[in-house]
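Example S7 (structure tokens).
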């Protein structure tokens, strides 16, 4: 009877830790995903949160459980994992998330969990229980993912710049007098930023005034 009660409280503690990590994952990573669109004024905070919640929910139907499968079976040998390993992994990931959140250090909760699992397994069975292929794939994509994001973002920026290469301002409309040079620069298409900076009106116009769009 005592063994059953002990097992129950162990499982209950693990569930609580898992919920704590899930909550930490939400405010730690989701905030990073909406920071840019909120700080630039593209979306209001409430709108950005709704967008993040919606696409996080939809993602499961597109990417399925690939990440969970990698974390659960592709990082360490499953036979080594027990309640002690799970406890150590969750506690380590939560602690790291709290530290990086407090000091404002960019960090991924998924990678924190992978690190927690790896550390707990190493403490229990040594490095031989790690799966090199899964760890290599995880480490590789730490570098590949930002590179892919940079390339795709650049391509999208160029596509948008060429699609809307005509002036976004109607230069015949009423605009601040010092925006005249900017309007001339905008007519150059993708080269308008360099031209505008040369005239030293770029920051004044974009940051300090709201011009009517054409």
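Recovered sequence:
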């Amino acid at each position: 009877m005592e063994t059953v009660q002990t097992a129950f409280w162990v499982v209950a503690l693990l569930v609580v830790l898992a919920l704590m990590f899930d909550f930490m994952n939400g405010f730690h990573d989701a905030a990073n995903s909406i920071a840019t669109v909120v700080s630039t004024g593209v979306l209001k905070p409430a709108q950005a949160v709704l967008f993040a919640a919606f696409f996080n929910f939809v993602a499961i139907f597109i990417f399925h459980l690939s990440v969970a499968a990698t974390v659960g079976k592709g990082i360490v040998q499953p036979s080594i994992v027990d309640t002690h390993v799970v406890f150590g992994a969750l506690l380590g990931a939560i602690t790291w998330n709290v530290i990086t959140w407090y000091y404002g250090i960019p960090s991924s909760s998924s990678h924190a969990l992978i690190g927690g699992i790896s550390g707990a397994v190493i403490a229990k069975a040594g490095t031989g229980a790690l799966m090199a292929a899964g760890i290599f794939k995880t480490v590789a994509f730490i570098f590949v993912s930002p590179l892919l994001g940079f390339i795709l973002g650049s391509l999208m920026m160029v596509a948008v710049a060429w699609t809307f290469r005509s002036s976004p301002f109607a230069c015949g409309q009423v605009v601040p007098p010092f925006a005249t040079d900017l309007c001339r620069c905008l007519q150059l298409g993708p080269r308008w930023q360099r031209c505008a900076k040369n005239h030293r009106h770029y920051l004044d116009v974009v940051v300090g005034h709201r011009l009517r769009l054409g």
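Notes on this example. Residues 185 and 192 are 5 Å apart (CA to CA).
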